Amino acid sequence: MRKLPDFAQLANLPLIETMYARYLENPELVESSWRYFFEGMDLGGQLPQGDGKTGGALRVQRMVQAYRRYGHLGVPMNPIVPPPEEPVELSLNELGFRTGELEDHFPTLGFCPSETAPLKEIRAALQRVYCSSIGFEYMDLDSKRLEEWIQKQIEPVLTIQPTIEEKRRILEHLNRSEVLETFLHTKYVGQKRFSVEGVETLIPILAELIAVGGEQGIEHVVIGMAHRGRLNVLANILNKPYAALFQEFEDNVPLSSEESGDVKYHKGFSGKQEQVHVHLAANSSCLESVDPIVLGHARALQVQTGDEARKKVGAILIHGDAAIAGQGVVYETMQFVKLPGYATGGTIHIVVNNQIGFTTSPPDGRSTRYPTDIAKTFGAPVFHVNAEDPESCIFAARLSLAIRLLFQCDVFIDLNGYRKYGHNEGDEPAFTQPAEYKQIRAKRPIREIYTEKLAHEGSVEKALADQLTEEFKQTLSQALAMAKMPTLAEIRPTRRIFPSPKTAVDRSIISQVAKIATHLPENFAIHPKLQKLIEERRAMAEGKIALDWGMAETLAFGTLLVKESVAIRLAGQDSIRGTFSHRHASFFDQNTNQPYCPLAHVDKARFDVYNSPLSEYGALGFEFGYSMAATNALVIWEAQYGDFVIGAEITIDHYLTAAEQKWGSSSNLTLLLPHGYEGGGPEHSSARIERFLELAAGSNIRVAAPTSPAQYFHLLRRQALWAEKKPLIVFTPKSLLRSELNMSSIDACVSGAFEELITDQSSDATRLVLTFGKLGLELIKVKEKLNNTACVRIEQVYPFPTDALKQVLAQHPRCAECIWAQEEPENMGAWPMVSKLLPQILPPTVKLRYIGRKASASTATGSLKRHNQEQEEILRRLK
Hints:
Blueprint: H1 13-25, H2 32-45, H3 57-70, E1 105-107, E2 116-118, H4 119-130, E3 134-137, H5 144-154, H6 164-187, H7 202-215, E4 220-225, H8 230-236, H9 242-249, E5 269-273, E6 276-280, H10 291-304, E7 313-320, H11 321-326, H12 329-334, E8 347-353, H13 362-365, E9 382-386, H14 390-407, E10 411-416, H15 434-441, H16 446-457, H17 462-483, H18 507-517, H19 528-541, H20 549-563, E11 567-572, E12 587-588, E13 595-596, E14 607-611, H21 617-629, E15 633-638, H22 649-656, H23 659-663, E16 670-674, H24 689-694, E17 702-704, H25 709-721, E18 728-732, H26 747-750, E19 757-759, E20 767-771, H27 774-778, E21 789-794, E22 796-798, H28 802-811, E23 817-825, H29 831-841, E24 847-853, H30 864-878
Parallel strand pairs: 4-6, 4-7, 7-8, 8-10, 9-10, 11-14, 11-15, 15-16, 16-18, 17-18, 20-21, 20-23, 23-24
Antiparallel strand pairs: 1-2, 3-9, 5-6, 12-13, 17-22, 19-21
């Protein structure tokens, strides 16, 4: 008998399988010896196999691999459509078998008790694992170790056998989930609540994740979700009192004069399950916008708790099927999973798959088979489950948690159900999906289906289940009675006002920080230009040369670390070096490329600086979430150019500027936005000052454009140390970063504070010129030509320095004209706000006038020549 080639051994099946896949794609992709081997194998595969002892193993292995890859296509995961037909990928013919071979014996490869078995038995064993209750998508994720681990958990027999106690716990959570929704539906007819009915199994899944996670060491869980099921999660997972929930339906919630509040299905809450702290982040109607915020919050908790292994703090994101497929911020958020500055150890994603958007069906809402197909991009396994099979759902939850903890990767649970009512309870879904909702109206509640199953198998008596239901209804009725009682305090007290902190720093601290910031390790090969920078920074700290912007920032960070032990996190696009090469928070060895970050070696507090992914929406959301949890840290996000911040408008509008008023959430997140008209064109000139001022009200944010390094130094320190936490928007310079017009003395850091308004030394002027930003410094060059004019630089435009401006006006009693001068077009910049504000401040005898670019649809011209003409015209009109 001819001896087989050495490589043709079962031990080499993975290699043979890989080469065979290439051969099937194109025989020319494999060398001739392999090609001849596979041609012979294909011929042999067409011959009868006899008892299987002398062949067929490779064909069986191909079948196993096919079920691992495509078995999910045959799972009856959808509760409102008939079970799927056999996928073509799993047909006998496709796998190289004939129907007549079903009774023939083949090697079982461990899927049956015996070494060989009839093909039909092997096939049935594979179907029980891969086509029965859970659709497993885990192959080809670039992690052989993860694939093999999952296989060990589910092969050769998928065992889903919860204990009687576990079954009763599932039933209890289903009971609370469904009964609460029914109670609300009858007591508050027509009110929006975005019911979880049709996917009630979400509640036992979450309860299981938190309970089992707690047993395995998880101490904090941060959850993000949209409206669907939020009220149920608040009450039955975070233990928000039912009476408090009903108060919101009764519109009986006390608010202070500064609060607007928000609708009940947007609000967040913090609670506890056993020993696990659970936080549900507040969310706006912009679906998925909360995703990066949750991960930022989780990352901050990991830093605060010293969770370097990322096994004490976890994140869960709950998506809608239409939203996860349609919202780009999901991709931006998932991109964080392995990034050093953003990793949280993986996220468990649960897709509440209603199989519909508002009124849009899946074929109109996505181009992929599943809403979870984004998971493939990031090598995340997906488990498709049927909401009407709670035990399989719990198995998938446990498996997901184990993977997240062991492999530190994202995991998806695709929870297939339906939406019992329309988009909200006042909507009529049959307008657009009549056939689907005819089926849905005939569905029985999942709790009822599961109760009957348990009663049939003897795990729970139906009478006991009914008793639990009635007891819970009584609990809800009692809570409702409490909610209807008059509120003792209709108006809560207003917020406290905190004084601005002291920001000046002793020279000895400045010197200490400068020494740390300019230190390099021995034999570190620094770039020659940066060696000069280091020497200049030492001279700046000693007062030998003027202080520039980059060193002022370094000293602000360093003094906060050394003197006040305030942690700092700075992240943004190219923020380590700085877009304009002004920062150099880390130096890179020119021989080894290894970075060295001097301030990271201060042992009193953390200094983290990261280059972010090229993202605004997701990246800014992450920093906002981080800032809310990192209460003793200065958290900064920097845009590469200020114009790019518009990519994060949802986060700015719905969270950064409004979260305090809507949800009582405070943040001191600082935004650094390079801004200035320098001929860079429409997308490299304006950080949209007007957008932030449109959103400014009730002292919700601080908006500043410091015009000297010392001002920037004091502004950063004030932001970090102020007990009154507010977001800060800083319009930072570009060309002025190294300009002689934009320099300070080190003495200005040793004394003084941030000045919200700076005026020149003119006295008794007949004209005031007010500016905000770079133009104020450019006026210095033409000051001698401005007769009887006092120039005032507004350094903080919101809250506006009204009292300080009145003091300036008092110094110029003959002032007859006040000019607001700006680089931005008339319909942009600060003018739209100050044009309404200044008439309330100026004396009636003072005329207000505008000088700047005319109103425009575009922020700036793309012509450098035209830009220079416009800039010169502004200065000419001021003379």
